[in-house]
Amino acid sequence: MSTSRRAWTVWGVGLVAYIVAVLHRTSFGVSGLAAAERFGTTASVLASFVVVQLLVYAGLQVPVGILLDQIGPRRLLIIGAVVMALGQLVLAVAASVQVAMGGRVLVGAGDAMTFVSVLRLVAAWFPPGRVPLLTQLTGLIGQLGQVLSAVPFVLVLDMWGWTPAFGSVASVSVFIAVLAIALLRDSPDVRTRPVQRITWAGVGSDLLKAWQHPGTRLGLWTHFSTGFSGMVFAMMWGFPFLVAGQGLSEGTAGSLLTLMVLAGAAAGPVVGVLVQRHPLRRSWLVLGVVLANASAWTAVLAWPGEAPLWLLVLLILSLSLSGPGSMIGFDFARTFNPPNRLGTATGMVNVGGFTAALVTILAIGLVIDIRTGGASTYGLDDLRVALCLHYVIWLTGLIGILRTRRLVRRRMAAHGVVVPPIREVIERRRRNRRWRS
Ligand SMILES: N[C@@H](Cc1c[nH]cn1)C(=O)NCC(=O)O
Fold first, then answer.
1. Has residue 337 been placed in a domain?
2. Complex ipTM, two decimals?
3. CA 139 to centroid of ligand 1, rounded, Å
4. What is the whole-number distance in angstroms between the Cα of residue 231 and the centre of ligand 1?
5. Range of the domain at 400
6. For 336-369, how does the pLDDT look when each residue is reduced to its tens digit (9 = 90+)?
């Protein structure tokens, strides 16, 4: 098989593995009613499953990144698929909340190993110019996993019940592991990769070097500031905000969430091409995404009473930029770190958005609980106050972005790459245009 065909095959297998990881990630969220019935528990206990799973995912990003640099993406992806299969099998037979929670911990752990491995395969198999667009496509096509859990998985759950549904998604992961064993290779380099002995000193030095490079931290703050808002909306508070806060029907709220996925799919390639064409202006794209998210939220939160549908659609369109914007963080990690440290750096970046989302999801719940005294119903005013927590995260993220960007530019200047201020570039272009006409 020629290298380029091989590269596409490797990307295809990685992509399918990531789609299946997203299917596992979201499969519990869509089985809320069945889970409440099976375990005889409340909605808040079930919501804590999402939080624990995210916590495991975010907490494992750095260790998994280190492991990726040591054992390579193929093995890590296979381990991830097997761990997720085990997690879903545990959930399939679980009769108590504790056992089910153990299953979700395994799913979170396996999931944490998948995306970083796929990004590493893309970086190893494709020329650098193609990587930004393929990274965007990986992120957005992966979200198809959400559709798989919302439609065929729910269908199997309704028709055949809990154990067959979770048992069958476990078997899909076993298939992914077999596919990866058969078709994946870490890189096009035919020489086998020497097995690296893991030493604490080596791990510590990689961690330190990745963290010390301001480009890695710029990636982390990028993922943090752009990624969290979309995740908070899609994973937890979007549906209640639209239904309990804005008075929309469940059908309309569902359509708006679908619009968010579709608009994200359209925006991803555009962001990828812009990053590919203007690598020195990536941070402006990031600031643009944060500005779009913050302005749309401000307009909706400041609107007296329920916002009109057109404004909610604008909010959804701006939030659809959240995922594509966060992927720019991975591009910073890739371009500012050598290949042998890329896993560690990618893991660090991925901690950003997931930690910010986790903190925001929990804090919003807490503020609502304080305002309502723990009652199970809440309204627009409670949601409005709680959602203002977004500003704390944006402010923290913006400080992080601007500080690390300054450090990155200083380091680039020391290597002879000077990024001219955007004002200067616009002025120069204007002068050139005048001169030509
Ligand atoms: N930002 C997401 C990926 C994404 C792209 N478009 C929509 N979502 C991300 O960071 N993904 C990591 C993962 O494990 O899913």
1. yes
2. 0.95
3. 5
4. 9
5. 215-437
6. 999 888 889 999 999 999 999 989 988 888 888 8
